[in-house]
C-alpha cells in the first residue's frame, strides 16, 4: 500500500542542475549568450494558471501561429481557443468525428488545421474563421497527417499516410477533391509519424519499426541537395532501430536545423537535421528517476510517498492503451528543449546541457503528457523573435508577451495553461483556476446530489485529543464534510487512534498521525475502503492549526490526518480540511519541535493516549 501524507510545497528553484545524461568530459562550454532573455520569453510559473474542460479525455493539442489554441478529445470533439493579451478565450466547438481523433495537424502559417480518424474521413478547418471548409473521404484508414506546404504556396498540400500500407498520399486541401495529387511509397511499412521541415522543404517520417526517412513533398524523393549525407549509414538515423524501439512523436525546431524524437523507451533524442547525427540523448526512464530520487539534488527530489504515487501512475500509463504519446518541443530560439516527465515539465538548455527550469513539480495530481508552446507577440500577430544583438538581459519582461504552455494530462478531461503568472487565490473557491466550462458527467452530478442528502445532525462538532504532551481541542465541520467527520469521530469513539504515535513531524509545516503501523503506510476508513475528498470553498489551508486528511492522491482518504503549523495554501483542493484547533495550540507547537530522524519520525514517541468525543 502506498504511504499517505500531506505534501509540502517546494518552490522550484530556477537554477541550473546537472541533468540525467551528463555531457562528456572536456573543455567546459561557455554559457549561452543572452540566456536570460530567452528564458524571459518562456513560461516560468510553478503551478498551472488555468485549466478548461473537455467532455472527454484530452488527447491532442496544437498552437497555431495565427494566435489560436486547438484541442481534441477522445470523443472526437475539437475546440478552438483564441489567445488573448492575457490567457485564452473559447471560440468554437466542433464534433469533428464520431470516434476518437487519431491525428491533429496545423499548417506552418497557422491558417489551416486538419483532423483524422478511423472513420476514414479528414476534416479541414479554416483556423482564423474557425470554420470547417473541406471534408475528404478516404479509401483507406489514415495513419498520420501533416501539412507539407510553405507560406505563399498556391496548393495547400496535405500528406496523409495509410495505416495498413507503406503508401502516402498528397492532397490539395483548397481543391476540395477526394483524389490525391500525388501518391507513393516511402517506407517498407506503414508510416506512423510525420513532420514537415518548412525551412528545408523536407518531410521526416518514421514507420512502425522506427526507420526514419527524409523526402521531398513535391517529388517523394530523397532531398540530396538539402542534406550533408548520401547514405543513412553515415548518420545516426538507425539509432531508433538499433535500440529496438519506435517513434512516439517527432518535432522540428523553428530554424529547421534540429528535430527531436520521443520513444516508448523513455529516451528523448535530439538530431541535427542536415547531418542526421545525434546531438543529445536524455534518459527519462523510471530507473533513472529512482536514482535521482536517491540523490542529493534538491531539484529532482520529491517527498517519498509522492514519488511512490507518481511511479504507480507511470506504470499505469504503460499498461493503458490509447494514452496520448508524450512529446518534446523546442522553443522559438531552438536553444531550449521542453518535455513532460513524472517530475514535471522540464526546460533543458541544449547549449549547456542543463535543466534550467521545472514547471508543475508541485502538481502531484496531474501527469502531463503532450505539450504545445505559444510565444507570440500580441500586437504584430507574428511569432516573436528575440534580438540577440544589443539585447539587455536586465530589462524587464516584455508586457506584450504572454508565453503560454498548453498541456494535457493522463486521464484528464482538461487542458492546462502554464504562464509566467502563478494562479490567483479568489475568495470564492468556485471561481478558482479550474474553470467548469462544461457540464459535469451525470455520475458526478449524482454523487454531489447524494452527498447533499447526508444526515449530519447526529455528528459531533468537536473532539479532544489527549496526547503525551497535553490536550488538543478541535472543532469539526460536519455540515461541510459529513463523511470525513463521520469517519474521524467513529474511529475516535472506537479507540482506533488510542496509543498511535505521531509518525511524521516537520517543523514549520505539520504534525501527522492516525496510522496503526506507525510508518505512514497503514490505516483504513470505517468502511474498509478509501473514500472521496470533501472540499469546501469556506475551508482552506489559509491558517495554522488546520485539521486535514492525509492521502495518497485524489479520493484516497483513510484514517491518517495532520495538523498544520503554518498556512499551507498549496494543499487546497488536494487535502480535505475538516476541522481547526481551538485550544491546545501550544501542545501542537511542542510536538512540532521534537527532534526527528531523516525520515521526519520523532526519536521519542509522542502518542495519542485517547480521544474524548461528546455525546451527540
Protein described:
This protein has 7 helices and 37 strands. With 616 residues, it is mainly beta. The strands form 8 sheets. It has a 9-stranded antiparallel β-sheet with strand order 31-37-29-30-36-34-35-33-32. It has a 5-stranded antiparallel β-sheet with strand order 1-25-24-23-22, with no helix packed on it. The chain has a 4-stranded antiparallel β-sheet with strand order 2-28-27-26, with no helix packed on it. The two termini are 34 Å apart. Belongs to the cyclophilin-type PPIase family. One of its GO terms (molecular function) is peptidyl-prolyl cis-trans isomerase activity. One of its GO terms (biological process) is protein folding. It catalyses: [protein]-peptidylproline (omega=180) = [protein]-peptidylproline (omega=0).
Provide keyphrases for this structure.
single chain; about 625 residues; mainly beta; nine-stranded antiparallel sheet; five-stranded antiparallel sheet; about 10% helix; about 35% strand; peptidylprolyl isomerase
Mean residue pLDDT: 87
Report the major sheet: 9 strands, antiparallel
**Radius of gyration computed on alpha carbons:** 27 Å
* Coarse structural class: mainly beta
Amino acid at each position: 500500500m502506498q504511504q499517505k501524507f500531506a505534501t509540502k510545497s517546494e518552490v522550484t528553484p530556477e537554477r541550473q542542475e546537472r541533468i540525467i545524461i551528463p555531457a562528456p568530459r572536456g573543455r567546459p562550454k561557455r554559457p549561452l549568450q543572452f540566456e536570460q532573455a530567452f528564458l524571459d520569453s518562456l513560461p516560468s510559473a510553478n503551478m498551472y494558471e488555468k485549466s478548461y474542460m473537455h467532455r472527454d479525455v484530452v488527447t491532442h493539442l496544437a498552437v497555431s501561429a495565427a494566435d489560436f489554441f486547438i484541442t481534441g478529445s477522445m470523443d472526437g470533439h475539437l475546440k478552438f481557443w483564441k489567445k488573448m493579451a492575457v490567457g485564452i478565450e473559447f471560440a468554437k466547438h466542433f464534433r469533428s468525428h464520431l470516434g476518437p481523433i487519431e491525428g491533429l495537424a496545423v499548417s506552418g502559417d497557422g491558417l489551416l488545421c486538419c483532423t483524422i480518424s478511423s472513420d476514414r474521413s479528414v476534416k479541414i478547418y479554416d483556423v482564423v474563421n474557425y470554420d470547417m471548409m473541406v471534408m475528404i473521404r478516404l479509401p483507406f484508414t489514415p495513419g498520420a497527417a501533416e501539412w507539407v506546404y510553405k507560406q505563399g504556396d498556391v496548393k495547400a498540400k496535405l500528406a496523409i499516410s495509410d495505416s495498413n500500407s507503406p503508401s502516402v498520399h498528397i492532397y490539395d486541401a483548397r481543391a476540395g477533391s477526394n483524389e490525391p495529387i500525388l501518391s507513393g511509397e516511402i517506407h517498407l511499412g506503414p508510416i506512423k509519424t510525420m513532420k514537415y521541415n518548412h525551412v528545408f522543404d523536407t518531410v521526416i517520417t518514421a514507420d512502425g519499426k522506427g526507420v526514419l526517412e527524409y523526402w521531398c513533398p513535391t517529388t517523394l524523393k530523397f532531398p540530396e541537395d538539402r542534406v550533408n549525407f548520401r547514405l543513412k549509414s553515415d548518420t545516426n538515423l538507425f539509432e531508433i532501430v538499433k535500440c529496438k524501439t519506435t517513434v512516439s512523436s517527432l518535432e522540428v525546431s523553428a530554424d529547421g536545423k534540429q528535430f527531436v524524437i520521443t520513444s516508448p523507451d523513455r529516451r528523448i533524442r535530439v538530431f541535427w537535421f542536415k547531418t542526421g547525427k545525434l546531438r543529445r540523448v536524455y534518459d527519462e526512464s523510471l530507473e533513472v528517476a529512482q536514482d535521482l530520487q536517491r540523490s542529493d539534488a534538491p531539484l529532482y527530489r520529491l517527498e517519498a510517498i509522492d514519488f511512490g504515487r507518481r511511479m504507480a501512475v507511470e506504470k499505469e500509463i504503460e499498461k493503458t492503451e490509447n494514452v496520448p504519446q508524450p512529446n518534446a518541443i523546442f522553443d522559438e530560439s531552438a536553444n531550449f528543449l521542453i518535455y513532460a516527465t513524472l517530475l514535471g515539465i522540464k526546460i533543458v538548455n541544449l547549449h549547456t546541457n542543463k535543466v534550467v527550469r521545472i514547471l508543475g513539480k508541485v502538481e502531484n495530481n496531474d501527469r502531463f503528457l503532450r505539450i504545445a508552446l505559444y510565444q507570440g507577440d500580441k500586437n504584430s500577430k507574428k511569432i516573436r523573435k528575440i534580438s540577440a544583438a544589443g539585447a539587455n538581459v536586465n530589462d524587464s519582461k516584455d508586457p506584450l508577451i504572454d508565453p503560454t504552455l498548453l498541456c494535457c494530462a493522463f486521464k484528464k478531461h482538461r487542458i492546462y495553461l502554464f504562464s509566467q503568472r502563478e494562479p490567483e487565490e479568489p475568495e470564492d473557491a468556485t471561481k478558482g483556476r479550474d474553470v467548469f466550462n462544461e457540464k459535469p458527467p451525470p455520475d458526478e452530478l449524482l454523487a454531489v446530489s447524494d452527498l447533499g442528502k447526508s444526515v449530519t445532525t447526529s455528528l459531533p462538532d468537536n473532539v479532544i485529543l489527549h496526547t503525551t504532551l497535553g490536550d488538543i481541542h478541535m472543532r469539526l465541520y460536519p455540515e461541510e464534510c459529513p463523511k470525513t467527520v463521520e469517519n474521524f469521530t467513529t474511529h475516535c469513539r472506537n479507540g482506533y487512534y488510542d496509543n498511535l504515535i505521531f509518525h511524521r513531524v516537520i517543523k514549520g509545516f505539520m504534525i501527522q498521525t492516525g496510522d496503526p503501523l506507525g510508518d505512514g503506510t497503514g490505516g483504513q476508513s470505517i468502511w474498509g475502503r478509501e473514500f472521496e475528498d470533501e472540499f469546501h470553498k469556506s475551508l482552506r489551508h489559509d491558517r495554522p492549526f488546520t485539521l486535514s486528511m492525509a492521502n495518497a492522491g485524489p479520493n484516497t482518504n483513510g484514517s491518517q490526518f495532520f495538523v498544520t503549523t503554518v498556512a499551507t495554501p498549496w494543499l487546497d483542493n488536494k487535502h480535505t480540511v475538516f476541522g481547526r484547533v481551538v485550544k491546545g495550540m501550544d501542545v501542537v507547537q511542542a510536538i512540532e519541535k521534537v527532534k526527528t530522524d531523516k525520515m521526519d519520525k520523532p526519536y521519542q514517541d509522542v502518542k495519542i493516549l485517547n480521544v474524548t468525543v461528546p455525546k451527540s
